[in-house]
Amino acid sequence: MALWIQAQQLQGDALLQMQSLYGQHFPIEVRHYLAQWLEAQPWDAIDLENQQEEFKAKRLLDGLIQELQKKAEHQMGEDGFLLKIKLGHYATQLKSSYDPCPLELVRCVKHILYTEQRLVQEASNASSPGSGPVDGTPQKYQQINQTFEELRVMTQDTENDLRKLQHSQEYFIIQYQESLRIQAQLSSLASIPPAERVQRESGLQSRKSTLEVWLTREANTLQKYRQELAEKHQRTLALLRKQQTVIIDDELIQWKRRQQLAGNGGPSEGGLDILQAWCEKLADMIWQNRQQIRRVEHLTQQLPIPGPTEELLTELNGIVTDIISALVTSTFIIEKQPPQVLKTQTKFSATVRLLVGGKLNVHMNPPQVKATIISEQQAKALLKNENTRNDSSGEILNNNCVMEYHQTTGTLSAHFRTMSLKRIKRSDRRGAESVTEEKFTVLFESQFSVGGNELVFHVKTLSLPVVVIVHGSQDNNATATVLWDNAFSEPGRVPFVVPDKVLWPQLCEALNMKYKSEVQSDRGLSEDNLVFLAQKAFSSSSNNPEDYCNMTISWSQFNRESLPGRNFTFWQWFDGVIELMKKHLKSHWNDGAILGFLNKQQAQDMLMSKPNGTFLLRFSDSEIGGITIAWVAENPNKAERMVWNLMPFTTKDFSIRSLADRISDLNHLLFLYPNQPKEEVFSRYCTPPNCMHVFSCRQKCHHMTVCLIVSTVAVTYCSHETVYFSCGTC
Description:
By secondary structure, this protein is of the alpha+beta class. A hairpin with a 4-residue loop joins strand 15 and strand 16.
């Protein structure tokens, strides 16, 4: 009943869609008054394609009628009287409609409950911040479902026509055999007396003439039936192909694109259940039409009648085979991608799935899937159908896996759990290309048959581009290659072509997506943050975001050329910030305590208008993965205020002592910019000290500070020190 309660909360277009599910075939009052009973029944346990399941459907129909009658009997009072009559009428109506075909009731209720659940889920997604429909808009769903209903009606219509044709042809053959029998009788009259022969011959000739006229007329009718049926199949196949284009070339491609962006930290690509349901419906209808066309071919072979139908049937057979082949090969997909930065000698996993495997009974003879790593050039040759001589660019251990059918989910998939890249063979690099710019892909391939070996399929699918590394130090540059490829590749591209230049706003979107995902924060990069990054990337001083909207950034600027005056690239600097944040400073970023993306001059301008002891945190310009504290205080050597900057802290420093503890140690830091007392911001992250010793700074400035024992190492700090150092007295 919980689903019906939620469904009643739908609004707008979703509510209209929900209401359109009901009518004379299933009144909405029945859904309302029997909500709890309907949602508790095992509708999904019934296989609509198995006629032997009809007794289960009949049991559900009888239960539905009994529940309606029971509900009607319990209605009391004036209002109850009208409802009692109405519910009783619905009970009679449903029994009359579905008693001859109880499986249709199951189909109807399953469709209603499934659609309600989808509409409720979409409404829930839309009301959640930052989320939306995962697998398409409600309008698309409605259109796809309407087309499936149209295809179902068309397929049932051709099935009825085919039975009519079959019955007509059977009767034609009986009459044709009767004409042959009459002809045989006429031939045997030569042996009887002339008087008797004339009498019998006259009657037989009359019957023969009448039958021949009927046979000629009926032969033309049969040919007309065949031609009309073939033309109907032609229209059905055209609509099937159009529907398949929508599902495979639009919806599935969009799912794959979301999967690729998820590799950059985008939202999850969403489940495959809806896509699989659509693909299974396609497979079912394509197969039904294929079997119908083959039955018509058998009828034409059984009774050849000259005409254009035979040629059309041959064409239809080719079309339907092409459609089913395209569906099978397109729905062999990678559900879980292998890691896109792949380190040799390290275990990794992947999952491939055949969306129509269960429907086509491929699991009855489970196929084996093989994984191979190939180069970009080999991938190009493969897509051109060029002979690659089974070449590979490396050796993957544990690269064979049998597809398993999961009864509860109806999925056919192969889970590679312990693959490992033993070795890699690199190609000659072009120009300034480094090893971390070289792209590979994992090729998954399998072979299986359907329909009792009627059709044999050799299916292949390529993973997203993979960059192979042999050492952890190569990870950040490999990640840059992957990020650029995931963000800017186009559907249907030649492997693995990406633009060399992109607009700055496009890169901003990719960087923000990556940053939010890695730092696990809803607080992304602000417009000011992105202006700072643009200044760094383009060596610009402009603070106007509009100045960068039409600027392009090249791959070389992104991660090949070092920043001016530095020995690292733009990406290496940004990736260092990400690593620092996600390992040590996530909480402080989420609290808004870290401004981060500021240069030294900006920090100075902001702090000079604030009281002494005001400080802020900004990312270091000079050190990868460094963050520094800037604060305003008096200059002891001059009678003026100035902004001081500590040497940057890195991951190594924070693994010894946290940022909150370090800020707590520094007594001259009083207010986090603009005016928050530091205790309000950082105290809940501080750890209590184990011991204290007071002594002088090693620069002999006589500033006294606190020595804290962390683990077994005593460390100390003062405003002149750039790093912690061991206390000599501890």
